[in-house]
């Protein structure tokens, strides 16, 4: 079982490329809880997840409980192309100080692909391996950006099962997705927190360079 702290976000303001994207965003993600981020393309979901994962600094506000708790899976799978499926999982297990990779292989039906080089996998198979990586981190809070891209229906079900099991162990998940995963999750409409148009207009083009 995990014993995570709640992730508490207060009055967060974030920007991308120097342009304010969201402001006034507050939420709490409790252990065992799931929060689904919704919003139109460009609304700021990726920017929010990157900020929570520590990949970029917020413009303002507070994030409490993120450090050391979060396992982030972004658009890129972060796989080592010249390592096999098993070697990839062992690598990440060692990085995070974990041992057993079998539950990760089993959760995403990766045993038949165990000895294949990751670089030779199909897009959906790579995505399954990228998601299996979460299971060897031992981290309680999963922060996931469009995790089901390239997955077929069976793999989407594997992913939803893995999230449910994770929540059942006291983990938590924050997921940006456009599809219904059938999870018992709160929904956060990111567009509700769109940054003030004046602040957006005030950003210079140089910010994009
Ligand atoms: N590298 C970048 N440099 C500058 N601006 C960016 C960059 N990446 C994204 N943006 C802009 O930041 C804003 C928020 O983008 P973000 O990727 O967070 O949206 P999103 O909600 O995740 O969108 P999608 O559903 O299309 O993935 C958009 O206006 C986008 O054009």
TrEMBL record:
Keywords: ATP-binding, Cytochrome c-type biogenesis, Membrane, Nucleotide-binding, Translocase, Transport. One of its GO terms (molecular function) is ATP binding. InterPro entries: AAA+_ATPase (IPR003593), ABC_transporter-like_ATP-bd (IPR003439), ABC_transporter-like_CS (IPR017871), ABC_transptr_haem_export_CcmA (IPR005895), P-loop_NTPase (IPR027417). It comes from the Bacteria. Residues 7-209 form the ABC transporter domain. The keyword Translocase applies. Transmembrane segments: none annotated. The keyword rRNA-binding does not apply. PANTHER family: ABC TRANSPORTER I FAMILY MEMBER 1. NCBIfam families: ccmA. This is Heme ABC exporter ATP-binding protein CcmA. It comes from Sulfitobacter aestuarii.
């Amino acid at each position: 079982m995990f014993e995570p702290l709640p992730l508490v976000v207060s009055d967060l303001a974030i920007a991308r490329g120097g342009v304010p994207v969201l402001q006034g965003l507050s939420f709490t993600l409790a252990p065992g809880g799931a929060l689904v981020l919704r919003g139109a393309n460009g609304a700021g979901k990726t920017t929010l997840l990157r900020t929570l994962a520590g990949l970029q600094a917020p413009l303002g506000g507070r994030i409490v409980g993120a450090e050391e708790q979060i396992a982030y899976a972004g658009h890129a799978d972060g796989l080592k192309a010249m390592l096999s499926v098993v070697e990839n999982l062992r690598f990440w297990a060692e990085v995070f100080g974990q041992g057993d990779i079998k539950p990760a292989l089993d959760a995403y039906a990766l045993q038949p692909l165990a000895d294949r080089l990751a670089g030779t996998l199909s897009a959906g198979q790579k995505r399954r391996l990228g998601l299996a990586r979460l299971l060897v981190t031992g981290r309680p809070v999963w922060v996931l950006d469009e995790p089901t891209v390239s997955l077929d229906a069976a793999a989407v079900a594997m992913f939803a099962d893995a999230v449910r099991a994770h929540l059942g162990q006291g983990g938590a998940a924050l997921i940006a997705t456009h599809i219904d995963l059938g999870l018992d999750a709160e929904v956060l409409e990111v567009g509700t927190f769109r940054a003030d148009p004046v602040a957006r207009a005030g950003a210079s083009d140089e910010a994009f360079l």
